[in-house]
Specification:
Distance between the termini: 17 Å
Number of helices: 7
Radius of gyration: 27 Å
Shape: elongated
Largest sheet: 6 strands, mixed
Structural class: alpha/beta
Low-confidence stretches: none
Length: 206
């Protein structure tokens, strides 16, 4: 699969052959769903908490005598059926994380990249670097490339001017190649890869 390389100014900079084993697969939604679910579950804080009857600061004495009142038998006012009592089976602090095999995670990334390639939503840029950290100049460059909602993946080290300029642009995410992930690829309309990012991906899956 050949894709043309462009510059940030929108000029032609040659062609690049993409690896079919990474960018040419037939995307499977079930694998993508598994990886996205794993990512979001890992990200979830799980700090929700309700107090059970054992944690309520309230007297533990019997409310009234067992017999002779004509009322139902009760003991502690901490019981869930009473106002101010504990919550029965309420949420507790826990981790929502679950396991996903490394091979499935790697396959999910390949399928996400292939999905973008299949929908022609990948742009290869020769170099993600700016002379000055000017957001206005970068917005103009993105307009030439037709980018309004995109994930931009650079090499192992991002150009600081480019990173600073892109920070204030809405719906544009910038990550180094180490941070590439299925969820961010799928949530943005276009995937922008630098040449260094493509080389790093092919080296990673070699």
């Amino acid at each position: 699969m050949d894709l043309k390389i462009t510059t940030l100014a929108g000029k032609d900079a040659g062609k690049l052959k993409l690896n079919e084993e990474i960018f040419g697969l037939d995307p499977r939604e079930d694998i993508l769903q598994r990886v996205v679910r794993w990512q979001l579950a890992k990200k979830q804080q799980g700090t929700h908490k309700a107090k059970g009857r054992a944690e309520i600061a309230r007297t533990g004495a019997k409310m009234y005598k067992q017999k002779g009142t004509g009322r139902a038998r009760h003991h502690s006012a901490r019981a869930p059926q009473f106002r101010g009592g504990g919550k029965a089976h309420g949420p507790v602090v826990r981790s929502h994380e679950h396991d996903l095999p490394k091979k499935v995670r790697a396959l999910g990334l390949k399928h996400a990249l292939s999905a973008k390639a299949k929908s022609e939503s990948i742009i290869i840029v020769d170099d993600l670097a700016l002379a000055e950290a000017k957001t206005k100049a970068l917005v103009a460059s993105f307009e030439k490339l037709g980018l309004s909602n995109a994930l931009v993946i650079g090499g192992a080290e991002l150009d600081q001017n480019f990173k600073r300029a892109a920070t204030n642009i809405p719906n544009i995410d910038v990550l180094p190649i180490q941070g590439i992930n299925v969820y961010d690829i799928l949530r943005r309309g276009t995937l922008v890869l630098s040449k260094a990012a493509v080389e790093a991906l092919e080296e990673r899956f070699k």
